[in-house]
Structure formats: structure tokens, C-alpha cells
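Quick sanity check, Peptidase, M24 family:
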Amino acid sequence: KKEKTTVHVLTTLDDIVWLLNIRGNDVVCNPVVLSYALVTLERFYLFINEAVLDSEVKSYLKELGVTIRPYNDIYDAVGQLKGQKVLLETAKTNYAIISNLDETNTIVDCMNPTAPAKAVKNPVEIENMKKAHIKDGVAMAKFIFWLKKNIGKQTITELDAEHYLDQLRAEQEGNLGLSFHTISAYGANAAMCHYSATPESNAVLEPKGLYLVDSGGQYYEGTTDVTRTISLGETTQAEREHFTLSVISMLRLAAVKFLYGCRGLTLDYVAREPLWSRGLNFDHGTGHGVGYLLNVHERPNGIRWRMVPERQDNCVLEEGMVTSDEPGVYIEGSHGVRTENLIVCKKAEKNEYGQFMEFEFLTFVPIDLDALDQSLMNERDVELLNNYHRQVYEKISPYLTEEEAEWLKENTRAIS
């Protein structure tokens, strides 16, 4: 109605399933179904392979007033929209659909209105995501405990570690799989930001240096994404420095308070300043939006230092938006570090200056104290880390074995 259009052609899978409040498993790691949607002011047409819908879902969709049509009928359907004003996002719509529109159609090309709505999680979704992150934190704590206990005592490769962590997640109640393929990277391999271990590149983890693992899960309660860099033994001064800076950067961004109206572009400097002041940087965004039992990368919220128009991730940060916070340092041929938590935007105080906003952690996974160089941290950094670790222990330890809980207590101890 706002755009004064009569029909909306929707092709992005996450938007379709979110709008209908359904999920599927047609795409690996992304709980979506292959489909198209055509929405008018009165009707909703879902173009899908009907065989993938069970009777319960069909009944649910019927109650919503959804008309189910064969998947490939979308092309004929758009061809029958002659004379209508059509809302669609051309960058997200295939050429065949656009070509089938008639010359009498007027196209209103803008971001799908579902995208910003989907990004704002409601209170129920946020509470559920907190539950998902407790489960994920348990899996991660068990994994780090296992790795620390066994490194140097048995042969562990990048793929061994990846598979063990994936299995720990699968054992968590309500787990529906991974939210993306696990990045398991040791030593110089971690300097490749999106490295993927293969049988050919599969490095053996040695009791020295740093190991980076970036991973996440899909749960009935939500989507997770977390990165930890783990010391496997003796580390170099550069490794400790870079690791500590990534931790400081992550904590400082998560602790920032800002006036409503800020975008990720405004806040990015908070995360990069500890690195930039030492002539360091990382060549990826500081944060990306995360879906609710949906895609682990979601627009339109994000945090980066410069505009990347095609990313469409520079909106005003709204209450309920979930974003990653993941600064890192990558030294080619040597090592890579990254520390990543998910944070949710929420309202802080409101006064004569306006509405202030802040972030709250969703991720609760210990940060490796063994690789930390405290000389780089100020009192506020230490306070932030201690407060975070206190919450990690309180939230995660009840779900661990006695031995694991004792290990977690030691590895979330307050530092000074």
C-alpha cells in the first residue's frame, strides 16, 4: 500500500518462509523451501512443489488463505499481471520472471518490505534465541574442553575437530543441523578468512600455536554463529597480541551505548580502533545480521567501516536486530584470529538527548585466557571480560559434567 502497488512478487526464500511462518530443508544449512510467492491485497499465492508439504502444513496454509500452485507456474502467473503496478526487488529476481512481465506493467524496484520486518526479532523470538545460544554454548564448551585435554595426546586434524564439534551440536536437544559449514583452521590456514578444510589441506593440530573455529547451528529456538580462537600450547608474542586485540575489539563494540538513529557504519570504528591504532585491520565486515531459524547472514543490518551498496546492510539499528560482532587479524603464512559473539540491539535510557540504545550478548562461550596478553588491556577491558565470563559460567556450567564444569570455572576465572 505504501508504494501504491497492486501485487508483490517475492522470490527470496527466507522472506517467503518467514512471512508464512514455515521452515523447510531444501537448502543445506538454510531452513527454507524452494518456492515463489505472489501477493495481492486480497490473496497469497505460493508456488511450490506440493509434494514437500505434509497434511498439517497444507491445512495451516489453507487456514491462512494461501493458494498453492505448482512451482513453475510463477512464470505464467506474472505474465497475467498486465497493467498492474508490481513491487519486486530486481536484484533478487531471476531474469525469466522479469522478462515475463508485460510492457504495460510498472515495476517498483525496492527492497522487499519483509527484509527489515524480518530483521527485527520480537520478544518471543529473542527469548528463544537466548535458549538456542545456551545449547550452543554447552556444545562449544564441551568442544574446547575436549580439545584442550587431548591436544598432543592423540592425533587431531582440522577435519577431526570439525566433525567432533558438529557431532556435539547434533546432540543438543532441538538441533536441526548446522547454520553453515564449520570453519576449522589451524595456524597459517586460519589466515584465510573463509578457509574450509579438505582432505588435501587437512592440517594436524599440534600442541602449539592458535586454532580458529567459526561455527553455528540451527535450533528450533533460533540460529547461532560463534568464532573462538584457541591456544593449543606455546604461542608467539604476535599471536597473543593479535588475539588479545580481537577480544578487546569485540568487547568494546558490544559495550557501546549510542543514540537511536545510528547505523553500523557509525559504530564500526569502536571495534577497529584498537587495531587501526597499531596499523592493523581486517578485510571483512565487523558484523552481519542473523536470522531467526533462518539464514545466518541476513540484511539489512550490519556493521562495517565503509559503504558496500550491494550488501544492503547499513540500516538504522533497531531494537530486536541481531548482529554478529567479529573483529579479527589475519597474517598470511602465519596465523589468523577472530573472536565472534552475536549481540541483540535493545533500548537503554531515554532522556532529554533522545533514546539511547545498547547491545546484549546472546553468545556465551569462554574466551581463551591462555592466549591473552593482559598488558594490552585497560581496566575497562578487564571488567568487560570478567563480567562476560561470569555470565558464561553461570549459564553454561549447569549443563556440563563435573569435570567440564571445573574446567570452565578455571577458564572463566576473574583476571586482574
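Posting the structure with no commentary besides this: The two ends are 58 Å apart (CA to CA).
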